[in-house]
Amino acid sequence: RGGSCSWGTCFDTSKCRGDGLKVFVHPVTGPISETQRRVLASVEGSRYYATAAAKACLLLLAGQCGREPLLWHGGRNHLVISLHAAPCPRTFQLGQAMVAEASPTVDTFRPGFDVALPLLPEAHPLRGGAPGRLRQYSPQPREALLAWAGESGGGPPAGTDSSACPWHGRCEQDAGAEQTHPGDTLPSATFCLIPGRRPGAGRFLQALQAGCIPVLLSPRWELPFSEVIDWTKAAIVADERLPLQVLAALQEMPPARVLALRQQTQFLWGAYFSSVEKVVLTTLEVLRSRLAGAPAHPWQLWNSPPGALLALSTFSTRPQDFPFYHLQQGSRPEGRFSALVWVGAPGQPPVKLIQAVAGSRHCAQILVLWSSERPLPSRWPETAVPLRVIGGHRKASDRFFPHAAINTDAVLSLDAHSSLSTSEVDFAFAVWQSFPERMVGFLTWSHFWDEARGGWGYTADRTNEFSMVLTRAAFYHRYYHTLFTHSLPKALRVLADEAPACVDVLMNFLVAAVTKLPPIKVPYSKQQEAAPLAPWGPGSTAQPQSQPPVPDCINPMVAGFGHMPLVSSRLRLDPVLFKDPVSVQRKKYRSLEKP
Amino acid sequence: MKTKHRIYYITLFSIVLLGLIATGMFQFWPHSIESSSDWSVEKRSIRDVPVVRLPADSPVPERGDLSCRMHTCFDVYRCGFNPKNKIKVYIYSLKKYADDLGVPVSSTISREYNELLTAISESDYYTDDINRACLFVPSIDVLNQDTLRIKETAQALAQLSRWDRGTNHLLFNMLPGGPPEYNTALDVPRDRALLAGGGFSTWTYRQGYDVSIPVYSPLSATVDLPEKGPGALLAGGGFSTWTYRQGYDVSIPVYSPLSATVDLPEKGPGPRRYFLLSSQTALHPEYREDLEALQAKHGESVLVLDKCTNLSEGVLAVRKRCHRHQVFDYPQVLQEATFCLVLRGARLGQAVLSDVLQAGCVPVIVADSYILPFSEVLDWKRASVAVPEEKLSDVYSILQSVPQRQIEEMQRQARWFWEAYFQSIKAIALATLQIINDRIYPYAAISYEEWNDPPTVKWSSVSNPLFLPLIPPQSQGFTAIVLTYDRVESLFRVITEVSKVPSLSKLLVVWNNQNKSPPEDSLWPKIRVPLKVVRTAENKLSNRFFPYDEIETEAVLAIDDDIIMLTSDELQFGYEVWREFPDRLVGYPGRLHLWDHEMSKWKYESEWTNEVSMVLTGAAFYHKYFNYLYTYKMPGDIKNWVDAHMNCEDIAMNFLVANVTGKAVIKVTPRKKFKCPECTAIDGLSLDQTHMVERSECINKFASVFGTMPLKVVEHRADPVLYKDDFPEKLKSFPNIGSL
């Protein structure tokens, strides 16, 4: 491996100038492990994938044995991924290739050039992955302070256990787990001691998942993605020669720090490590950041929820432009919204709706997304705010395209059939300003596990809880348009286009996967009948029964996301004096109470 | 390319050297300054400094060991004594060193190094006890390699009393290497000593061991470029002995002890006259060609300056730059540019970086492999643009892709870096020690935000202690804490009512009456969950917010001993709402603060309003961590003040939670008439009028202690999904809401 390589000297960025980062994967020769297969699948499913080497600026090599591949060129613009010790010897020099290796030793690691990967267990899932184990913020009252993980995966060899614990008798010995069964025996303690030598690296990820704060004693290996992840926020790296000081420091650590460290372990685990796909996409994102140059991915986007895979720097590099960082930035979302009205098959301009929405003093503009076969009407209602018509491509996913005309943080997504009053719009927008990262809607659906069919289902029946809001009347941040269009797997967007009812489900999946929280429901005066499940289906204007035969979108989406992201809520946010026994004159949103 | 550079440097060096000899100036930087040992404990005059003779054969340390890391070359045991996670630094006393023949090894000590040692000796790090020290700083000045006799300086280091191969010794060097090669690290053999160096490259920098520091610019001290606020332009100026920027890093000493400083008018972020500026002199001809080409292509928006050729007598050449025949004041001209180039010279580290940051100009770093100052902790992406040397000709288009708002933030960030870490030798010294301190006590290290966020961001940003989106499991339940004095009958009714709530897991009665014992065990209501009575030592309101060990759940329900109007459904629903908002106060009666324009102060409001900003803690759910914060982290004297006044503990809690989370409260369920909920402690005293006045005073008092008004006003409350909907009541989860 070229010891003197750096990003500037050994990587030719000029090849990436046109299309940005495009990755070609060398065809595999020889045996390949299951994890490697998953790595390749992740790259091939990503938006960086190039089908031909000529179109790519990065060539990827995973699990190559024997001789060097074609187009090797001394390793220039190559990334060699090795998650495990190679099953067979490599007979060629790595040359100028970058190495993405699991837990590389610090002596050979070239910062800013190589990429440090986590040491993944063999059975690490391709997508989704198990969520973090932490269910509460503060440590359990009688939780052990410290767990000590053995050196090898199968538990410590007899006789070495007590000597390896630097604090005699004060380590909670955990049983040790085979790497092939991750999560079987996750340590349950506030801190987890990870030895500095390399085999300890496997324990590191387990501790992270368990919410057990890793305490690394002079690690000889580079922490995963150390180029972008600030590990001081999630782990303690200490000098192994001062064990007593470390123990004292852990015992005296202020609760605020313990809380913050615990939460950060969970965020990092879920954002970058819980699946092979996340690890691979993070690797590519690190490289893309380098390509983009200086203002690529600010620290904050990497190191606070939802993480850099979900906060795309292609959208903006200013944290304030996203819905997630207003508190940290001391900023607030804009006080205006754009109404985006989708006009489908019947092709009638929804005059009443437009007037009601334009009546809100927070409304900045009205955008009509004309997706009807019929020609555009010549007359539009007079409104106090600008009205623009955008031609659609008659695809359901058009609704969530990041149209350049949307120039406010907030989007009010509407359907020509929707019916809202100005009061309802005003109140919902006031609520959204308190929750800019969530969807705030009027009509809801809920999902459930269908034992009989052995799959997920969803219903429009009115129940005591809900997990989705319909985008035919909902506020959300315009960033979700970018995320919907540029980060979702293509297969899912195609699914939504083919079955328009699915587009709502998909958007709700996406927002829930980002926020890990339910959407918010506000009162809706016209909610007498349940919201139909297929609002844009052919001839869908009126569906009498509450369970029309709709295509199954929810199960393919669960498969696509790798897990069920939806979260249920049992509450609705009403105006403070909603239906209180007090004079209507005192109420600001009195029209919401009309029957 | 390499050899071309080399020949160029050699030629240039020879010319400069000849020039030096010709003018007979042997006064290399740094200058020796009179009476400069005032940092030392003995306060000796520099003339009394003992002279140490170094025999020609005295030992020379090994060259620096490139494989050194903290865990291999640093003796951390020496730092074991240090309390409060702070390293102790010892400074060797000042000596003069001479060789066998009596020729001095170096001129004693420069003004800058003296300032540096003074800064350390005045800091918390300093110790005069060599036996307790964790880090040793020699009084041998190696800031500028040009002034050093390499071998003899090394010999001087080796004879220091605790040298021990340089273990735990810290050397400061800003100008490393010498002609013609210009190594990027100090050439003095130093074995294991840590090096705080200005101008490291990736080849010489030992990651996590050395510290990369700025090359101090003397203009920092003498030129005042205010970031904001207008100021008059004064004539004059002055600078110290840092003259290496003059020619080609080989110094031509020009020492001019002028005293006046220069004020400049406001130049905040925003459009400036030039898009890109190059102010360095003695650039490599190839770079200059590239720059001239840029200027030719982009015209007025690019300004390439050079040194002036025919300045009149008495004009300081370092303070002027020229473009053809046009003369510009330096560094003031930097304030006219959006981006300022910082190109590698013979050395990687350039003092111009400091001037550029001071001017709030965004530095464009064109120096491959350069380790930026304090890069271990500073996020340079926020303040600078790095462009590979081979892309210099594309620099204009690269910079054009940076959005305007980003540029403004980078300008602010650049200025902040200068203010915090560049502007004085002291700032440089303390940042260096802090970095080493953070490595030794990583669990007490300064965070990224503290290093990098400008004060304005630090002030307005909130870091929520419960930031992870998490919905705690319902199974854990909540602990109800009832504060009581002596209303036993009412208390028992509350206990009975609350015990009906399904998710209650424990009930804690805080008995606040010292004169009376709580009723016997047998008299208490029999309930299905553990009931525990805590007796307090003093009748204080803050007892209700103490983080009792008995609280095992994360959710706490604070409830007064007279709140009997809440139904079991309402309490259970409140708990469910808390689970969805675990970082907030979730309560029943809501209150509002208003700005009274007539009185110009805050006013407390309990009427039927459309907004809420507080909930009363006579009945509220919250995370138990806030009990810890209330008890141990309440700002100012608020906690004592509340206990003394026997009022407003709930307002204090609302302030605390809103301030730390930046979020509003959640009021649950419809309004109902609470039986004087705000005057529980002392019966009968609740004359409404005085009560409201007192509560308003609390708000004003707390707002002044917090230094801000943290409360957030919202227009919503939480109800069950189907509340008051036209839907069969028996199918609703929480039918019994708003009924009492």
From TrEMBL, chain A:
Residues 337-578 form the Glycosyl transferase domain. Its EC number is 2.4.1.224. It comes from the Eukaryota. The keyword Endoplasmic reticulum applies. Pathway: Protein modification; protein glycosylation. GO terms for cellular component: endoplasmic reticulum membrane. It is found in: Endoplasmic reticulum membrane. One of its GO terms (biological process) is heparan sulfate proteoglycan biosynthetic process. It is a single-pass type II membrane protein. It catalyses: 3-O-{[(1->4)-beta-D-GlcA-(1->4)-alpha-D-GlcNAc](n)-(1->4)-beta-D-GlcA-(1->3)-beta-D-Gal-(1->3)-beta-D-Gal-(1->4)-beta-D-Xyl}-L-seryl-[protein] + UDP-N-acetyl-alpha-D-glucosamine = 3-O-{alpha-D-GlcNAc-[(1->4)-beta-D-GlcA-(1->4)-alpha-D-GlcNAc](n)-(1->4)-beta-D-GlcA-(1->3)-beta-D-Gal-(1->3)-beta-D-Gal-(1->4)-beta-D-Xyl}-L-seryl-[protein] + UDP + H(+). The keyword Glycosyltransferase applies. Residues 64-252 form the Exostosin GT47 domain. One of its GO terms (molecular function) is glucuronosyl-N-acetylglucosaminyl-proteoglycan 4-alpha-N-acetylglucosaminyltransferase activity. InterPro entries: Exostosin, Exostosin_GT47, GT64_dom, Nucleotide-diphossugar_trans. Keywords: Disulfide bond, Endoplasmic reticulum, Glycoprotein, Glycosyltransferase, Membrane, Signal-anchor, Transferase, Transmembrane, Transmembrane helix. PANTHER family: ACETYLGLUCOSAMINYLTRANSFERASE (PTHR48261), EXOSTOSIN GLYCOSYLTRANSFERASE 1 (PTHR48261:SF3). Belongs to the glycosyltransferase 47 family. Glycosyltransferase required for the biosynthesis of heparan-sulfate (HS). Transfers N-acetyl-alpha-D-glucosamine to the nascent HS chain (GlcNAcT-II activity). Appears to lack GlcNAcT I and GlcAT-II activities. This is Exostosin-like 1. It comes from Tupaia chinensis.
Automatic annotation (TrEMBL), chain B:
Residues 84-223, 232-402 form the Exostosin GT47 domain. Part of the heparan sulfate polymerase, a dimeric complex composed of EXT1 and EXT2. Could also form homooligomeric complexes. Interacts with NDST1. Interacts with GALNT5. Pathway: Protein modification; protein glycosylation. It is an enzyme of class 2 (transferase). It comes from Tupaia chinensis (Chinese tree shrew). It comes from the Eukaryota. Belongs to the glycosyltransferase 47 family. The chain crosses the membrane at residues 7-29. GO terms for biological process: heparan sulfate proteoglycan biosynthetic process. Its cofactor is Mn(2+). One of its GO terms (molecular function) is glucuronosyl-N-acetylglucosaminyl-proteoglycan 4-alpha-N-acetylglucosaminyltransferase activity. Residues 478-723 form the Glycosyl transferase domain. It catalyses: 3-O-{[(1->4)-beta-D-GlcA-(1->4)-alpha-D-GlcNAc](n)-(1->4)-beta-D-GlcA-(1->3)-beta-D-Gal-(1->3)-beta-D-Gal-(1->4)-beta-D-Xyl}-L-seryl-[protein] + UDP-N-acetyl-alpha-D-glucosamine = 3-O-{alpha-D-GlcNAc-[(1->4)-beta-D-GlcA-(1->4)-alpha-D-GlcNAc](n)-(1->4)-beta-D-GlcA-(1->3)-beta-D-Gal-(1->3)-beta-D-Gal-(1->4)-beta-D-Xyl}-L-seryl-[protein] + UDP + H(+). It is found in: Endoplasmic reticulum membrane; Golgi apparatus, cis-Golgi network membrane. This is Exostosin-2. InterPro entries: Exostosin, Exostosin_GT47, GT64_dom, Nucleotide-diphossugar_trans.
